[in-house]
Amino acid sequence: MKRHCMKTAMATGAFLAAITTGSGAAGAAMASPPMPSPSPTGTQPTCPGMGQMHPVTSEYDYLSQMVPHHEDAITAARQLQRSGRPEMRQLGQSIVTTQTAEVAQMKGWLEQWYRQSPAPSPSGTTMPDLSGLSGDQLDQTFLQHMIPHHMMAIMLSQQLLMHGQAQHPEVAAFARKVRDDQWAEIRTMRQYLTQWFGQQNMPCIPQMPGMTPGPQPGTPGRPTPTEPSPTGT
């Protein structure tokens, strides 16, 4: 298990190191993010919105983890309709619309390909209850927790791709889209958080053993050099 976690960390490390380098204002906001608290087990970080991260072991495992993870984000994003900022209301609606469609797609694949396997079940929310919050407190709390929540989805998607675990090209394409779409939303959320609440309120960037700082090959939207080719070449 320890060896598998290290391989997982190395697989996700290059992508995370690459995407956490930016330019201009966005780059400055992301240059020195707070680090997560050490994990008691030494296998995963402790970041708000991350929760317990389990290494992806198969295509079925990826889909069964992503369904409740998406549903968690949808529940939180619906609360943004009460935000006083139009940017946040638009962000919330975008997350609800996109991820609701993705949940339906993933459930369809699970029914089609993995009918004999256990259905996904909620593993406990990693987002706080936002129903009692309003104004700046609602917006700031959402941003501080949804950024690492999105990062977890990116890490899970990148694990699937790096290890060549997708058994169907549709799932590989889906994982790339989740990775790239949610990274674009992270950039937007970090800009909002810096603009409205100051860089000191940035959440931690999750890291795992084996990750190294600094630019690495690979950018969102393109397979990294170690990602298996869809054609097998």
UniProtKB/TrEMBL annotation:
<feature type="compositionally biased region" description="Pro residues">
    <location>
        <begin position="212"/>
        <end position="233"/>
    </location>
</feature>
<feature type="domain" description="DUF305">
    <location>
        <begin position="60"/>
        <end position="193"/>
    </location>
</feature>
<dbReference type="Pfam" id="PF03713">
    <property type="entry name" value="DUF305"/>
</dbReference>
<protein>
    <recommendedName>
        <fullName>DUF305 domain-containing protein</fullName>
    </recommendedName>
</protein>
<keyword id="KW-0732">Signal</keyword>
<dbReference type="InterPro" id="IPR012347">
    <property type="entry name" value="Ferritin-like"/>
</dbReference>
<feature type="region of interest" description="Disordered">
    <location>
        <begin position="208"/>
        <end position="233"/>
    </location>
</feature>
<feature type="signal peptide">
    <location>
        <begin position="1"/>
        <end position="31"/>
    </location>
</feature>
<dbReference type="InterPro" id="IPR005183">
    <property type="entry name" value="DUF305_CopM-like"/>
</dbReference>
